Amino acid sequence: LTPEGAPGLSQEQIDGIVLASAYATKIAETARWAVARSADRISAERVNAAKSAASIMGMNNVYYRFLHLVEDGEYAALPAKLRMTVIGNPGIDKAEFELYALAVSAVNGCGFCVASHAKKLTASGLSKEAVQSAARIASVVCAVAQTQFIESVGS
């Protein structure tokens, strides 16, 4: 979870991705770990953006996974009617918010959203290696969550 281990990303970007991904796992212990880890490391705006990304993508990932799984183009032609105001004004750089949204979408398993955010990120000038780094961070956070869940259950 350093720039050396996550090429193309700054430490602040990494810390925001960790926090957004931890919220997305829905494992309280993982979220508490990430909150404690981010204290004094990232701005209040980045913390708020991580929360917003986890929340808005929680909604979008379910809806767009539905559109993919239903296999009926007529549903995709209908207006989504979902409020996504935060995406237009996330309170931080839009590309950085896209990193958070990509990571949350990876955690939530929404291929449509992962593809959309990856495309936006590379179009904004981010390297594919940086996009991969964000996905790898999300996977590491999921491993932490899985381990914490297993330990909480006991044997």
Explained architecture:
The chain has 8 helices and no strands. It has 155 residues and is an all-alpha fold. The chain is globular, with a radius of gyration of 15 Å. The two termini are 30 Å apart. The relative contact order is 0.19.
Question: What's a concise summary of this model?
Answer:
The chain has helices spanning 11-25, 28-38, 44-70, 73-77, 85-88, 94-108, 111-123, 128-153.
Number of helices: 8
| Amount of helix | over 70%
Shape: globular
Main sheet attributes: strand count, strand direction, barrel closure: none
Quote the beta fraction: under 5%
Give descriptors for this structure.
155 residues, mainly alpha
Secondary-structure map with pairings?
Layout: H1 11-25, H2 28-38, H3 44-70, H4 73-77, H5 85-88, H6 94-108, H7 111-123, H8 128-153
Helix pairs in contact: 1-2, 1-3, 1-6, 1-8, 3-6, 6-7, 6-8
